[in-house]
Amino acid sequence: MKTVLLIASACLLGLLSTTGASLPYPILPPLFAADSGNALTNFLGLPPKLLFGIALMINPVGLLLGSAMLGPVSDRFGRRRVLLITAVGAAVGHALTAAALVAQSYPLFLLARFVTGLLEGNGSIMRAMLAERLTGGLRNHALSWLNGAFHLGWLVGPLLAGFTVAAGITLPFYIAAGALLLGAGLAALALDRERIEAQPGSWWAVARERHALTLLRHPPLRTLFTVHFAYACGVAAFYEFFPLWLVDIGGYDTRRIALVNMGMCALMTFAALFAGRASPMEPRRRASLQAACAATAILAVGFGGLWIGLAAIVLFGLPHAYYNATLQGWSADRFAGHGQGTVMGLLSTTFCLANIVMALVGGVLTLFDTRLVLIVGGLLAAWAALALHRWSRQAGSDPALALHVGAK
Questions:
Q1: Cβ proximity of 56 and 363 under 8 Å
Q2: H or E element at residue 379
Q3: Which end of the chain is more exposed for a tag (fewer CB within 10 A), N or C?
Q4: Considering only CA atoms, which of 30, 241, 3, 320 is closest in space to residue 133?
Q5: What mean pLDDT is predicted for residues 257-276?
């Protein structure tokens, strides 16, 4: 029963966390693409599309810092305590976002999105909680189910935005804040209190000295970071800019963007239910094939017309769900000696860093053509697929290297 409550609590908070994070994606493109003339979209007289790119970037900046620090902090101060504090804080961040939209304050909007992202970096805590308390096939399944909950949040958030924004642009954020507070309350009842041994050092000292990026001192983890970063850049280019592509190519509004996103995330969530199954194929080679399929879908959006792009957007969810389950399960098995919070934090940090980079690059490229962002992203994901294949082949041909990859 405790195992069921553990998995359910993690999945619930994962769902609610990404629901709030994904809310702005169908709301912002029509807002910034249209020349509304309000203070939010015309801050300092800058081009609205450039402001849009910065608005996309700031939440992943917070996620980057949160993902790097919160996992290691929870290694030291306990998963439950840090998870609940961050969940409540993220709810406050959603309320601040709504206030910024009402005030048409671009700086307050950026601050609110940054704080929310910082505290929603707690996904690494949820993954670490499952990775250290579960073993074997159940752990792989639970991590995949948690991924499914995150994917489902990317469905629920835009869907919530699409069907409530007509009643007020702030309503979706207030709903997200309330749901996150409710989820935190339920998790507080479901999760057992942990016994934390007194150790020297403040949370800030732990975050500074043991953040996830310290793992880059180890060559195998540097390789993991490089390959996953390239793939994550492709995914970030896709996630962040396919809504703008739909506006530019098809003239889509918020509701129609939400429906397309719903199809993609529904397939991704369904796939995640089965993606944790065991396979005889070496995990990195399996991840290579999955990354190649995802890259093909991204490139199809960049090079294709509206109908080809729509099909590719939806189908992208299938290989991406399997890639996440494969890479996370393998990383949890091979690098557990470094601390599951820190290892899962590295994977989350890598994705957040990719979001920041592609928001900056994409904000510039969209000044020329939105399709350029998607093409660049697809090429990066394709390179990651090739690199994973080479890494797997090298480890397979050298048993000592394969042992070294799994060493601490």
A1: yes
A2: helix 370-397
A3: N
A4: 3
A5: 78
